[in-house]
Amino acid sequence: MPGAWDLIKEVEPTDGDPVVVNPLNGEAMRKLDIGGVKIDRCETTGAIWLDRGELGQLALLDARYKGVIKAIDRRRPDDVPRETRGPIACPRDGATMLIVRDPDDEAVEFDVCPDCGGCFFDSGELGELTEYSFTDRIRVMLGRG
Ligand SMILES: [Zn+2]
């Protein structure tokens, strides 16, 4: 059984997919390929950025790759809660992002950009989402958020 990081490839930024800067600390996020889906992850805080459509692509991955996400994405206690930090600016276009919260589980929340559809997750949030039936969960959250 290979370790989670053995199933992840690091990819370089391109003109079509430039570097994403973590809006919370100004650091360039690393581009990681997990089962063909490219995500951006902050090495320092563990925050994850997904462009529009990537959440759906992750949902279609097999259990092995979902396990990879869960293995690398653990909640860190030093994250500043959203109620404290407030809305953040989209790292792609600067729009004010909206906070989406699961009505059935207050601990499950993320930021979504109303302009480009990108999503920002604090450490552990994406990993926790993969524990649920993912697509159904997202549909409920976006529908009511
Ligand atoms: Zn945006």
Question: Explain this structure to me?
Answer:
- The protein is an alpha+beta fold and 145 residues long.
- Helix content is 25%, strand content 23%.
- It contains five helices and seven strands, in the order ββββαααβββαα.
- A seven-stranded antiparallel β-sheet has the order 1-2-3-4-7-6-5.
- Strand 3 and strand 4 form a beta hairpin.
- It binds zinc ion.
- The site of zinc ion has 8 residues, from loops.
Strand elements, count: 7
Q: Which strand order does the major sheet show?
A: 1-2-3-4-7-6-5
Helicity level? 10-25%
- Number of helical stretches of at least 4 residues: 5
Mean pLDDT level:
89
Distance between the termini: 39 Å
Radius of gyration: 14 Å
**Number of individual domains:** 1
- Summarize the main sheet: 7 strands, antiparallel
Tell me which ligands are bound. Answer: zinc ion
Q: In one word, what is the shape?
A: globular
Structural class: alpha+beta
Strand content: 15-25%
- Uncertain runs are none
- Pattern of helices and strands: EEEEHHHEEEHH
